[in-house]
Queue: 2 jobs
Job 1
Amino acid sequence: MATIQSNRQEDFRGMLSRMEREGQLRRVTRSVHPRHISALCSQASAALLCESVEDYDTPVVGGIFWTRSRTASALGWPEGELGVRFAKAAARPLPPVTISDAPCQEVMMTGDDVDLTTLPIPFMHEKDGGPYISAGVAFAEDTEFGLNAGCYRMMFRTRREMAMDLFTASDLRRYYTRTYERNRPLPVAVAIGVHAYEHMAAAFKAPAGVNEMEIAGGLRGEPAQLVRGKTVDIPVPAHAEIVLEGELLPNGWTADEGPFGEFAGMQGDLKHNPLFRVNAITHRRNPIFYALQMPWENDWLNGAATEAACMRVLGLAGIHVTAVRATEGGCCGWSVVAAIKKRAGEGKNALTALLTLPVVKQAIVTDDDINIYDPNEVEWAVTFRCQADKDIVILSGMKGKHVDPSVRPWDLKPGELPTTSKFGIDATIPEGIPAFRYERIVPAFKDEVRLEDYL
Ligand SMILES: Cc1cc2nc3c(=O)[nH]c(=O)nc-3n(C[C@H](O)[C@H](O)[C@H](O)COP(=O)(O)O)c2cc1C
């Protein structure tokens, strides 16, 4: 049975333990085959810790960030404050500290002992190209830009090799391209099973040169603790469950990778990507393997940053925003709802500001009396405060994304980028209509009675 103990600085296990106490994680004691983990997680109302995994000694956890409430629980934040807290943390980065005696290096395997088949790497979705490590956080250094952390999926290929998805523009791709052009490998360490603070910071698209582990410190409220790798001189979270040390080989974009279930909820295509060769595996005693579940765990790792970005652009547009919600149906980024204290015209200003964010494709703006966490209230506002011919903003020819089939990416010429149209709904009370026209029904004498006194 996996023991979960917390350390002085809350680590992955401490986080799981707290989630369990909050009813956001359940243990499965019956033996589970790795190929059934995704199916079980997709049916569960909490994250699952599968304590006994057929043919492996390592327990597997999945579904940690599957919903807003689990994400909030992992972070230890109130659900309604994901964006606000993320924005504050990103504005107050804290440099990490390096420690020497790290739990993630309690056990070490090198040489012939390095064998990825000893890890319970699951086959996750019906049409995947192979088993995947979905929760890897890759760390690499560049002489100009310094330490970089990002989340990158990897498909199992051999006992020592995984194909890593470096298809899209990213800092790691930029680091790799530099070494690839010199026909040299890029040393990389991949941490599996890191705390939500480090995982979310790595998922954040920080500009090149910004050390994501400083943002992790901001999220934590204390410096993230790192340790230098044993065989690569790269720092990784000291309390990670498992670390794969190795190098991205200079084979370029040649190895089959995919298909894999993508973050937009659709099955992706076969890609060609670089190979990650693993030269050492270090781990904690009795490690826990984390099988991150697509698409919602990937999406919620971005949701707080999207909400923070929305608040930032609305602030720059001089708008008093009271709440922002990245919606799950919009994969926690493509669709957002914002509540504002409106002055004349600001419903449209707010929409235009939100739609300039690269990922946001649709937006709804309401007044601040609407509870934007309740989809029925939002629909009510759209129904009664919006006139379609005046209050829907459509912007066309904006930057789109290949992953969205509605932009027909297959029609593009090589190198051509997709464009998209976007729309926003101004569901604020239209200018000129007095507020009393929207006076809500209030039950008579509502403050005199409480239901629990009658049940
Ligand atoms: C769970 C998860 C998996 C991801 N997998 C990939 C991936 O395989 N390839 C990729 O290019 N981006 C992937 N991303 C997005 C990047 O991690 C994200 O853009 C990050 O900011 C990149 O960091 P970097 O530019 O500092 O390297 C993933 C994000 C998450 C949350």
Note: Residues 148, 150-153, 165, 168, 170-172, 203-205, 292, 298, 301 surround flavin mononucleotide (CB under 6 Å).
Job 2
Amino acid sequence: MTRLTPYQPLLFRIWHGASGILVIGAIISGFLVYNTFDGRFGKIIIPKINPIQDIHGTFGVFFLIVLPFFAVYSFHAGKHRLLQRDSIQKLTQVGKPIWWVSLQRLVNTSMLIAAVLAVISGRMMKEEWLPSGEFDHIWYYFHLISWVIMVCCLAIHVLMSAKVGGVPLLLSILSWKLRPEDSPKNWYSRFRSWNIRGEFNQFIAGSLLLKSIEVIVLGGIITAFVLPLFFSGTGG
Ligand code: HEM
Ligand code: HEM
């Protein structure tokens, strides 16, 4: 492997790979939930899968567990791949390579926002609604819309990554290769040298836009965990 081959840090590959598999599972199983019980906006004729809600709930819950780790990683170790201070200004240079890169970073960032919309609305859904034909709950509509947003963002995310880095970049997130300096053996020493105050100062000095998005995304994930506790028992 030459140094020119794109290389993704192991931690990124773990969190991003887990999120990717769980999101694709949630998108497919979510569609099958809709197809089994609802189908008002179009339907494919396949046998009904009765335990599909449980299968979908399992993908959803695991994604919710992985998401805070991936989000914290992305906003700190991976922040060079999210929106930058000058990204919006660079978006005016339509068609230039920097335009594509800025667009890719914008779309990377929007994946985290789309994920938050899906997990908050999913957490507010009740298992009893769809089997008993109750399709008019506002949270169900939010959850359906977040499915559409997630599918669009994911498609653009993969296309943008292909445009910016081509097949080598796409393959780099699937690769099992490990650089010695990235070995888990060094994680403990790297963790010990990690300076929370330095990280906090960097956060404060960072771009206001990215800071606001970080607060929205991390706040949204916490909301997804706790909001259902306040609504248990009510219809929503
Ligand atoms: C057409 C699309 C979708 C439909 C019809 C749908 C339907 C549902 C239903 C009925 C529940 C409640 C299940 C239960 O309580 O066991 C649920 C929960 C959930 N869904 Fe979806 N979903 C869709 C798409 C998605 C997508 C794309 C994601 C994430 C990327 C997602 C994430 C979640 C999460 C996190 C939960 C909460 C699981 C829990 O706390 O038990 N859903 N969804
Ligand atoms: C088929 C699935 C996917 C593919 C092929 C893919 C591809 C990629 C690639 C190639 C990168 C690296 C970009 C670079 O190095 O410049 C990346 C970054 C990223 N992806 Fe994905 N992705 C997928 C699914 C997802 C999902 C489901 C999410 C969100 C839940 C997501 C969120 C992100 C984020 C936030 C980054 C930037 C990470 C960072 O800041 O370190 N991706 N993706």
Note: Residues 138-172 form the longest helix (35 residues).
